[in-house]
Design goal:
With about 650 residues, the protein is mainly alpha-helical. The protein contains 23 helices and eight strands. It has a three-stranded antiparallel beta sheet, with no helix packed on it. A three-stranded antiparallel beta sheet has the order 6-7-8, with no helix packed on it. The chain has a two-stranded antiparallel sheet with strand order 1-5. The chain is globular. It comes from Umbra pygmaea (Eastern mudminnow).
Length: about 650
């Protein structure tokens, strides 16, 4: 009779010995055995479907096609809202002998750059400068406005948005960026909740509706409002394509496939001036309207994506949509010519056993309950914000303040496009050699050095050298400023691009849309600083640059805390994201004491470190007395021969707690 109760006790003790030791001295409330293969998409599911086969390659190619059109839309502001050169042909002052001095549009104080000569007018032979109030400079009935951007007319010249109405141009620029920021945030959450494919289709449909409506705007208010919604759904389109592309690829192809899309977007930026030139002098309609229609109409080619582009299989499995996953896996296997019935891994058989489970969705808010994941995302958000924000500082420093508007436009636009191409070319070998974290850290250090040298070294040149030869001093100062600006624009663009990709790799599939949306929205805030500085006449420009320079130093420190995701599978669940901990930069020597959490099993267990007394109390698994009784309960320790602590057990109210 005594053997009956002893057998369960012995069996329970044996199972307890086989389980990994819990953390913090507490046993988890319940242990559910996860599926063996389905959570490991890159290691098990994708190889069973033929790896990076024909199906995946076709879909990745389909994500590249819209990248060119997205480049058109993102840089359309440079043409639709470009500032013209202007000459007053009919002044308001009658009986005055007017000749125009150096008055060129933009003529209001809010649009003059730093160091631009103050415009002046000659009235009855007397030279009168134009003050910041803009009183004399706007005393004109009729302006002759000339564009140098390939168009004969745009929004500014259509509605005479000069002088007292110039602020509306900045509002129009805000509208697209602010719409993009909201779009990244909202559509990122929706992509995690309803899927990537619905967000893609909805974004394409409304992008066509609002984009074409912009071309038929009858005032600047309508134009700005419609541009907000165009930016909103353009962000949803960009985000969903980014997610689908990265979730289709195997680890070693993720970065290269993403960079191809980046090249195509830069190609759209380079081709845009030619497209604008082709739309010039359209006979039946204003050429800026024709340009807007030409930019939006190619998105009609994405309408067949409703039927030919499937949902992300990775997202379906991560959110337990197993019935839809089964049908899609059979379709992918058929396209890749793989026989799933004879597949030795048993993925399909395991999927059959999970069909009864209901879908389970996760919101980005769950990120706040993690210990490591939210920190990684916040660090990348700050990096993205800093990269795009300081990029404008370098671009502004590179411009010649005495150059005309047309020259400034061409220098700014084509230089930015050329630097973007050089950045994409440099990122590929740099990331292949140094990894994601090493490459991001290197480019951030270069950005910080370029910023600090530009702010500090140029002042020293002006103060302590060449005091008498002012011409040579100014020339040398200008050349150094341009050199540091180009280096800074190059490295800051690399930081921004790599931060976005980094986030997509370390964020779990269940919240990848929300995490990527946060980083892209942060990038939008960085880009928003450019029109804000223009609206305030570049006042506070030096302080603006100083703040972002300080942020680069902070980012360098925080980047050391990030993990290295190169050649690693994408995390699927929040627990997988928590297991992505920082790896040591230097390898351990033989005989040295290893750091904690160096083995994969330890990192997986570390993700459950939130099972603390407070957490157990909240879930009903323990009482507060457990937490307070630990200090008073005797403990036992076991040491190895070397003196290293290898086990620790505690008994509380008859329950053995071990670590």
């Amino acid at each position: 009779m005594a053997a009956g109760p002893e057998r369960p006790v012995a069996e329970a003790q044996r199972q307890d010995r086989d389980q990994p030791p819990p953390e913090n001295g507490f046993m988890p409330l319940e242990q559910t055995q996860a599926p063996r293969l389905l959570p490991h998409f890159d290691a098990s599911v994708l190889p069973s479907l033929g790896g990076f086969g024909k199906h995946q390659k076709q879909l990745v190619f389909l994500t590249w096609i819209p990248a060119l059109f997205i480049g058109f839309s993102q840089f359309s502001d440079h043409f639709l809202l470009a500032q013209p050169n202007g000459t007053c042909v009919e002044p308001l002052v009658n009986g005055s002998n007017w000749t125009l001095g150096s008055l060129k549009l933009p003529v209001t104080a809010t649009n003059r750059g730093i160091g631009t000569p103050t415009p002046y007018l000659r009235v009855n032979g007397t030279r009168e400068s134009v003050g910041d109030s803009g009183g004399m400079q706007c005393a004109c009935k009729k302006w002759k406005l000339e564009l140098q951007t390939g168009l004969s007319q745009n929004v500014v010249t259509k509605w005479n948005l000069v002088c007292d109405w110039a602020w509306k141009v900045h509002i129009a620029k805000f509208s697209l960026l602010v719409g993009s920021i909201f779009g990244y945030l909202v559509m990122g959450v929706m992509a995690d909740w309803i899927g990537r494919h619905p967000v893609l289709i909805v974004s394409v449909l409304f992008m066509l509706v609002f984009g074409l409506s912009v071309a038929f705007s009858f005032n600047v208010t309508m134009f700005s409002t419609l541009r907000f919604f165009e930016g909103f759904f353009l962000a949803g389109l960009t985000l969903s394509l980014y997610l689908l592309r990265i979730e289709l690829c195997v680890p070693r192809w993720r970065f290269s496939m993403t960079m191809v899309a980046s090249f195509l977007m830069v190609g759209g930026q380079l081709v845009m001036p030619g497209v604008a030139a082709l739309c010039r002098d359209w006979p039946s309609r204003d050429d800026w309207q024709v340009l807007q229609i030409v930019i939006i109409c190619p998105f009609v080619l994405m309408l067949p994506y409703i039927w030919i582009f499937p949902e992300s299989l990775r997202w379906l499995l991560a959110t337990q949509h197993y019935r839809r996953s089964k049908a899609m896996m059979l379709r992918i296997a058929r396209t890749n010519q793989v026989d799933m019935t004879t597949e030795p891994r048993g993925v399909l058989a395991e999927l059959e056993c999970e069909l009864h489970k209901k879908p389970k969705r996760t919101c980005i808010i769950k990120m706040t309950s993690t210990r490591n994941l939210w920190k990684n995302i916040v660090v990348l958000c700050v990096n993205s914000l800093t990269g795009y924000g300081i990029h404008h500082c370098f671009a502004r420093s590179m411009m010649d303040p005495e150059a005309p508007v047309s020259a400034m436009f061409h220098a700014d636009y084509y230089t930015m496009a050329g630097i973007a191409v050089a950045t994409c070319l440099a990122l590929c070998p740099a990331v292949a050699f140094m990894g994601r974290r090493g490459g991001l850290l290197t480019f951030m250090i270069i950005t910080a050095l370029a910023s600090l040298l530009q702010l500090g070294l140029l002042n020293l040149i002006g103060k302590y050298s060449l005091r008498h030869d002012t011409v040579l001093r100014d020339t040398l100062n200008r050349k150094f400023s341009v050199a540091f600006s180009i280096i800074g624009m190059f490295s800051s663009h690399a930081v921004s691009t790599l931060s976005i990709f980094f986030c997509a790799e370390i964020t779990p599939t269940v919240i990848r849309g929300g995490g990527l949306g946060l980083v892209l929205a942060s990038a939008g805030f960085g880009m928003l600083t450019a029109p804000i500085m223009e609206l305030h006449n570049q006042k506070g420009y030096f302080l603006h640059h100083m703040i972002f320079a300080a942020c680069t130093l902070l980012c360098i420190i925080c980047l050391l805390l990030l993990p290295e995701p190169r050649n690693q599978p994408l995390p699927e669940s929040l627990a997988d994201g928590e297991s992505y901990t920082r790896q040591p930069i230097l390898t351990h020597r033989p005989g040295e004491q290893h750091l904690l959490l160096t083995k994969p099993g330890d990192r997986d267990s570390y993700s459950r470190v939130h099972d603390t007394p407070l957490h157990l109390t909240a879930t009903g698994g323990a009482t507060a007395a457990v937490a307070t009784a630990l200090a008073a309960v005797p403990t036992s320790f076991a040491y190895s021969t070397g003196g290293e602590l290898i086990s620790h057990s505690t008994v509380v109210n008859g329950v053995r707690l071990s670590s």
